[in-house]
Design goal:
Chain B: This is Carbohydrate ABC transporter permease. Chain B: It is a multi-pass membrane protein. Chain B: It is found in: Cell membrane. Chain B: Its main location: membrane. The complex is a heterodimer of chains A (320) and B (335). Chain A is mainly alpha-helical. Chain A folds into 2 domains: 44 residues; 193 residues, MetI-like fold (Orthogonal Bundle). In chain A, 72% of the residues lie in helices and 3% in strands. Chain A has 16 helices and 2 strands. In chain A, a hairpin with a 5-residue loop joins strand 1 and strand 2. Chain A is globular, with a radius of gyration of 25 Å. Chain B is flat, with a radius of gyration of 27 Å. Among the domains of chain B are: 52 residues; 170 residues, MetI-like fold (Orthogonal Bundle), CATH 1.10.3720.10. Chain B is 72% helix and 0% strand.
Chain lengths: 320, 335
């Protein structure tokens, strides 16, 4: 059918054919849609209902729920002294971390994609943060006396290595800031970001394993012949990065930004996530659901704003 | 890097042809110095970062070979004085490691393979077809990554303790099915694309497919290939490196997962469950009381187990990363 429409080029027929083919899209996404209806929709509706209710778990099993309107939300946003502050902190951390994590992981992925001795070993080492991302080793290490003893070596665990330790006689982070102000005339915001990044290097390294792997796979998909022809035309490495690699990897930059935003919002070191899971464990489903809804709405708003903004710069080979 | 090298080669070729000119030789030297400097810098950077990542694991590694005397000897820091296999032997025996390894491998492989296929399919559907409601489906996908499974743990548990398919099963057998401690909960979650971070995999595949040109598929359609055949024969091979990446994610996250493992497989021997249970209460030969939490030996055994859990994944990655290089070359895509 497709062949015929292509051969005759009749506008009306080809329209119905593509439309038919588009309907087949539902077949491809059907597992997810089915799963959503089967599993997720109920959870969604329940948690939405609970956020307007006072839920009490009964000792003989089951629960009782009473409709109390917006009381849960009022309690969290107006009465609770910490929630707004923690929410603001979560957003601030996210906005601060994302550019650093994405730039760092693209840089490392490009490095790990170059031909060099020991590349396989380095790639395997940079895969370790991915394995540790589920946090199982961290959990097993809670109260681990030996790891605690070893991590008392100053700065190694937190990554605030030489920058703040003036023991080496180099710089303290304050001095570093002052030098940057005086010598290079950097703007204060830029100075804070760079020094902050240096202090958080361990966090950045341990949170970018997934992104590095995604970029690395994306770099494989760029055909080497493009680089070859660019080389013949006299393109330098720097130019071919910005003119070839960057646009072709940009769809995955969007993925990594979205993932980093979500990771920063839902990561285990996030105070609000801790509160939500803690409230869940205590059986305060009403409060927990209301908190979760506020939090995820804020996260979703940021996700949409950032996603729409970035996707304007994303280059796809097929324009629709 | 590559560009610099050929630049140097080209210069060398012309220099050989036209006789050595002083300026060219100087340029050549500069090129080589530049290259050397760059590769030194690169190694310095990579080794430094690698050390940062590996430091906790190296501590565990040196710790895992320490004998009990070394543990209480304050002068032993990183290098064990009396190296021993005792910790490994104890861990492997106590946790019945190889059985756990086999079970973990089975479950991880199953969910990895299923999630890889399903997410590739859904991602392709979202990238290439313009059906109504695509926007909604895509939004829902992103939403499911945003909401961590911990927040709906109880509903999930109830779903699979009293499993029913739209009331079909209870209509036939007159009751719901308990699916705990079997592979079914993970299989079901994987097939419907709701495993751990599956939204991310769908997103990755969708963006990847949007980035590759449509011409290949269109050529296949013109040649009379059907939709599913095109997907199987053309799309899957060119997305090989992406699929390997997704498989690696889901395999290693299932391997090290403690959330689903403790919920669905509490009675099954899994590596992650053994690691989370820890070694409290282990009776050693000749001892009258079991190990207590906080004792150096308990911590050492946990460290050893952590290494034993991680090591197979690193080995797997060392093999898999080869295909992360050659993925596109298999596909025969040009330009």
């Amino acid at each position: 059918m497709i062949k015929r429409s292509a051969a005759f080029g009749k506008k009306r027929i080809s329209f119905t054919v593509t439309q038919k083919r588009d309907l087949m899209g539902w077949v491809f996404v059907s597992p997810f849609v089915l799963g959503f209806l089967l599993l997720f929709l109920g959870i969604f509706i329940d948690s939405f209902r609970f956020s307007f209710m006072e839920v009490n778990v009964l000792s003989q099993g089951g629960y009782s729920a009473k409709f109390i309107g917006f009381d849960n939300f009022h309690q969290i946003l107006r009465v609770d002294p910490n929630f707004n502050r923690q929410l603001y902190g979560a957003v601030q951390n996210m906005l601060f971390d994302i550019p650093i994590i994405v730039m760092y992981s693209l840089f490392i992925a490009v490095l790990l994609n170059q031909k060099m001795k020991g590349r396989a070993i380095f790639r395997a080492i940079f895969f370790v943060p991915v394995i540790l991302a589920t946090g199982i080793v961290d959990k097993a290490d809670l109260g681990n006396s030996i790891m605690n003893a070893y991590q008392s070596i100053p700065g190694l665990d937190t990554g605030i290595a030489e920058v703040t330790e003036s023991a080496g006689g180099m710089f303290s982070s304050l001095q570093l800031k002052r030098y940057m102000f005086q010598m290079f005339d950097f703007s204060p915001a830029l100075v804070n970001i760079t020094v902050g990044a240096a202090e958080n290097i361990y966090d950045v390294v341990s949170h970018s394993g997934v992104q590095i792997l995604i970029f690395l796979a994306g770099l494989q998909a760029i055909s080497t012949s493009i680089y070859e022809s660019a080389k013949i035309e006299g393109c330098s490495g720097w130019e071919s990065f910005w003119k070839i690699t960057f646009p072709l990897i940009s769809p995955l930059i969007l993925v990594n930004i979205i993932y980093s935003v979500i990771d920063s919002f839902t990561g285990s070191n996030n105070q609000i996530m801790d509160r939500i899971t803690a409230a869940m464990k205590l059986g305060q489903y009403g409060t927990a659901s209301a908190m979760a809804w506020i939090y995820f709405l804020v996260a979703a708003v940021f996700l949409i704003v950032i996603g729409l903004f970035v996707s304007r710069f994303v280059f796809y080979q097929n324009r629709e | 890097m590559r560009v610099v090298r050929t630049g140097a080669a080209a210069v060398a070729a012309t220099a050989a042809k036209g006789g050595l000119m002083a300026g060219r030789a100087k340029y050549l030297k500069w090129m080589y110095a530049n290259r050397l400097l760059w590769s030194v810098l690169r190694y310095l950077l990579l080794i430094g970062l690698a050390f940062l990542i590996l430091y906790p694991l190296l501590v565990k590694l040196s710790n895992s070979f320490m004998s009990r005397q070394d543990l209480i000897d304050g002068t032993v820091r990183f290098i064990p004085r009396q190296a021993t296999w005792f910790n490994y032997e104890t861990v492997i025996e106590y946790t019945s490691f190889f059985q756990g390894l086999a079970n973990t491998f089975g479950i991880s492989f199953m969910s990895g393979a299923l999630q890889m296929l399903v997410c590739t399919m859904v991602g392709y559907g979202l990238a290439r077809f313009n059906f109504k409601g695509k926007g909604i489906v895509f939004t829902l996908v992103v939403l499911t990554i945003l909401i961590p499974p911990q927040t709906y743990m109880i509903s999930l548990y109830m779903k699979f303790s009293f499993f029913d398919l739209f009331g079909l099963i209870s209509a036939v057998t007159g009751g719901t099915v308990r699916l705990m401690d079997s592979v079914w909960p993970m299989a079901v979650l994987s097939i419907i694309g709701f495993g751990f971070k599956n939204g991310l995999y769908i997103l990755i595949m969708r963006q990847y497919f949007k980035g590759i040109p449509k011409e290949l598929e269109e050529a296949a359609y013109v040649d009379g290939s059907g939709l599913f055949r095109t997907f199987g024969r053309i799309i899957l091979p060119i997305s090989f490196s992406m699929m390997v990446t997704i498989f690696l994610f889901s395999f290693s996250w299932q391997w090290t997962d403690s959330f689903y493992s403790s919920m669905f497989f509490s009675q099954v021997k899994l590596l992650s469950n053994s690691l989370m249970t820890g070694f409290e209460g282990l009776m050693l030969e000749g001892a009258t009381v079991g190990l207590k939490n906080g004792q150096p030996l308990t911590a050492t055994l946990t460290n050893t187990m952590s290494l034993l859990v991680i090591a197979p994944l690193i080995l797997l990655y060392l093999f898999a990363q080869k295909s992360l290089v050659e993925g596109i070359e298999h596909s025969g895509i040009v330009g």
